[in-house]
What does this fold into?
Amino acid sequence: MTTKIIHFQVNGKLEKAEFGSDCSAEEVTDLFRAAAEAGPHHVLKMYNREGTVMKISPRLEANGRESYYRLEVVASDLQGVAKASDLDDMEHRLQQLEIRVLQDVGGTPDTMSELKSHVDSFKRKLESVEHLSWIGLFKDDNGDQRLAMSPPKPRTPQLSSQEERQKVRRKFLNISSLQVTEEVRELLKTPIFDNWQWEEAEMLVLLQQMFTSLDFLTAFHIELEVLQNFLFEVYCHYNNIPFHNFQHGFCVTQMMYGLIWLTDVRNKLGRTDLFIMLTSALCHDLDHPGCNNVYQINAQTDLALRYNDISPLENHHCAVAFGILAKPECNILKNVSSEQYRHIRGGMIKCILATDMARHNEILNRFRSIQSVFDFSNKEHKEVLMNILLKVSDISNEARPMAVAEQWLDCLLQEFFNQSDTEKQKGLPVSPFMDRDKVSKPSSQTSFIRFVLLPLFSELIKLFPCLEQHILEPVRTALEYYSVMEEASRDEEAPTKP
Ligand code: BYE
Ligand code: ZN
It folds into this structure.
């Protein structure tokens, strides 16, 4: 029999484990479980120096002191933890008990009321996460938790399979010659448009409709086939992730299109500026990996290295956009003069880089300072306005009908939670607003609307008062809705005693 020595770090301490080759898998796991002071329902993960997860088994490779592994308790598998349905049962029993106590004593004792309100509040808390089962908090089978909890792949660009994409391409080309109905063409020009009703091939046709109806094909001598190739490539370069996917790119473009039609920028900005705005909107999140700049920088990803921590994502989205345009069959700019190409490229770069929310105040303040003297013939003024219009389109989900907006919020939180889970696994700092233990939909949205959306939208409305009913009013309604929800959950946390 041989003895194996494993050096590993757990809870900040370096430890050494020794076991014989005749040990069972269970014994080895128990050994590490004890070292990590983990309970039977915790999931353990062992990482080697490269950050690769190692299977905890008797065959675990022995290592030296300098090449110690890292042992982490990543999560509880929630077995043995009460679910809302168990609580229903507990509540029922408590009710029975209450009736009996009432009969015996003639009133509900204080301790009983307290107990009841605890069960109530715990139940609501549980229910509020249970309906978020898509986040992956609840297992739906007893499959291998270790597999289920394997670290999320940092990027899944190929998730929408080649085949699936070709199907979308065929359908898009098939239906692209059909007329979009008058009703849909009008809806496309407003924030009440519901993106959830459309499949990807249809969205591509709607994008084609937007480019066509703004006369871009004529103005920039774009052949329809090249536009279609371009749109399809854009679709292919969005990843299959919860929020920053093709649907988001579509929605931002559609909102920009709406803003162009609802305001008179159509007559005040040139065709080229409108083209820059719509195309930037479409490309502004290309190949988004699902984790934000803070993560890229903290995890020292390839993107952060490539762009020296300066807006790595936005630089990347923009670079991918021009990578698509570099393919002749997709180059919707191939027939414009080199001077015009330079102008469009410069404009798109500025617009896309301005979507980095870390620069939100910088850009909003720049707009504030010129808003009262805004001059449509001033090149700099126009550039700031274009940045603002893209920023507004980018974060304007709450200006959409409630049912449309709420689904988007769920997608966003899912992506945020995925990021914070990865951060926890890698021992990186976790942003509190991404922590599933700390955020709730109402509290995040009331602050976001109060401190981000309303100040931004109000500034734009000073320049375009007609936008008030289209974007400011729905956002105010959303704020009321979330405030009521927030108030209700606050009451729940601090039950008022009789
Ligand atoms: C932003 C930055 C990056 C990605 F958690 C998305 F409260 C966003 F902070 N967007 N886009 C729309 C949003 C929204 N962030 C929030 N609400 C939105 O409606 C707030 C977040 C849920 C949180 Cl700003
Ligand atoms: Zn975006």
About this structure: The chain has three domains: 3-82+136-146, 84-127, 181-487. Residues 78-84, 121-156 have pLDDT under 50 and may be disordered. Residues 468-493 form the longest helix (26 residues). The beta strands are 3-10, 13-20, 42-47, 53-54, 69-76.
